[in-house]
Amino acid sequence: MNCNTCGAQIPEGSQVCPNCGNPVTPVVNATPVQQTPVNNGQPMGAPVDGSAFNYVPQQEPLGMKWANFLGYFVLWVGALINLVSGIAFLTGSVYNTVGVSAEDVYSYFSALKPIDTIAGVLTLGTAVVGVMAAISIIKRKANAGKLVCALYALNFALSLIYALLVTVMTSIPGFTSSTILQLIVSVVMFFVNRYYFNNRANVFVN
Known about the structure:
Elements: E1 38-39, E2 42-43, H1 65-91, H2 102-108, H3 112-138, H4 144-170, H5 177-198
Antiparallel strand pairs: 1-2
Helix pairs in contact: 1-3, 3-4, 4-5
Domain Zinc-ribbon: 3-24
Keywords: Membrane, Transmembrane, Transmembrane helix
Transmembrane segments: 69-95, 115-138, 150-173, 179-197
């Protein structure tokens, strides 16, 4: 049999096309209807309940471009950025971007070192979750949407807690413009992907 959307040949009885990810609708051979004389607008001998004229339109397959964009590009780039950021937190090289050494920062703000260490470990963890989410999307796993939402929830929580700890323990303003932007993006991406994957639960079934 062939996919209704992309035309690829797929195994008999498949419910989801492994090529494009869209649901497969079985093709039913249509039986030609013999024209019959009509009487007052009704076919002769037709049932009076009108059941012969019932029509159920076929639902258009939902697009998968956003899922493919996430699974093949966005989540991998995000995982790479989190990997680099996690290493930067653990090594203290995160401060090289502002022209100061980690030793100078930690000698003046000693509370920052354990905060950066914890942030580094958690950031590496978000990189792992991002890779898992990308693979789940590619393989059309049922938990793909949950992993994507969990990733952006973790990004939001990590950014918020880190900014709060830096502000309280060092008196340095932790809520910079980039931090606020990251928080907003995480919230938007959480709800957008939650709505998107909930509407495609019949596609992610593996």
